[in-house]
């Protein structure tokens, strides 16, 4: 019996999220979060994705590469306020014995003109995440409306999102390069990425998207974007 396994990545996913903070906690909560995966040799043969374009959604098997070796038998899910612990196998936390995850994303394009490049919508992974495998999503088998969701009993409550005049002007100027930046900011902040214990309406937070630092604060049930700052290389 084999005691250990080694899997090479088939590619690394490019996403708008250079940092973990602000990434939606589940896939498809931010439809304008787009990702691109260029398959690495020898997996970049067009025949390896033949027929994939017929599917609307796919499963990405990936590595929680920033938490390798940091597993814990219990974790504190944000859905439980960040205080109550559950077993790691009753959660989707990244601190796992084998740091492997699954993400269901929308397939937005298959390009085989020069190798293989796949485009996705609704990604929830940090930029540069190693991808191990891709499998098509099959609705009649994998959609189970009657399934119990445990402590995840429905979608999270969302914040309203507003922009200051300065922030909106900066976002509009940036949209020549990032056409859906305003929508993406709104989708990300609506999920309220703050720690569960945070409630100071004057505290300023920063979420990195692409090469911008989005400055914002939360007043009650409203996230207020105050500025969009370019991150210097």
Automatic annotation (TrEMBL):
Transmembrane portions of the chain: none
Record keywords, A-Z: Methyltransferase, S-adenosyl-L-methionine, Transferase
TsaA-like domain residues: 7-146
One GO molecular-function entry: tRNA (L-threonylcarbamoyladenosine(37)-C2) methyltransferase activity
Domain of life the protein comes from: Bacteria
UniProt xrefs under Pfam families: TrmO_C, TrmO_N
GO annotation, biological process: methylation
Gene3D superfamilies, sorted: YaeB-like
NCBIfam families found in the cross-reference section: tRNA_TsaA
Similarity-based family: Belongs to the tRNA methyltransferase O family.
Protein name: tRNA-Thr(GGU) m(6)t(6)A37 methyltransferase TsaA
Species for this entry: Formivibrio citricus
């Amino acid at each position: 019996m084999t005691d250990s396994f080694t899997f090479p990545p088939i590619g690394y996913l490019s996403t708008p999220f250079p940092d973990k903070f602000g990434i939606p906690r589940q896939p498809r909560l931010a439809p304008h979060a787009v990702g691109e995966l260029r398959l690495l040799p020898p997996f970049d043969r067009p025949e390896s994705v033949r027929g994939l374009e017929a599917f609307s959604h796919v499963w990405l098997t990936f590595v929680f590469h920033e938490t390798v070796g940091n597993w814990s038998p219990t974790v504190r899910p944000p859905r439980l306020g960040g205080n109550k612990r559950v077993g790691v196998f009753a959660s989707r936390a990244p601190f796992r014995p084998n740091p492997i995850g699954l993400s269901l994303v929308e397939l937005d394009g298959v390009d085989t003109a020069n190798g293989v490049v796949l485009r996705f919508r609704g990604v929830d992974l940090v930029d540069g995440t190693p991808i191990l495998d891709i499998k098509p999503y099959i609705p009649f088998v994998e959609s189970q409306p009657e399934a119990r969701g445990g402590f995840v009993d429905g979608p999270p409550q969302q914040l309203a999102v507003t922009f200051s005049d300065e922030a909106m002007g900066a976002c509009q100027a940036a949209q020549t390069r990032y056409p859906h930046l305003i929508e993406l900011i709104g989708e990300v902040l609506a999920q309220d990425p703050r720690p569960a214990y945070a409630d100071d309406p004057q505290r300023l937070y920063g979420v990195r998207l692409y090469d911008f630092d989005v400055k914002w604060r939360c007043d009650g049930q409203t996230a207020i974007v105050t500025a969009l700052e370019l991150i210097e290389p």
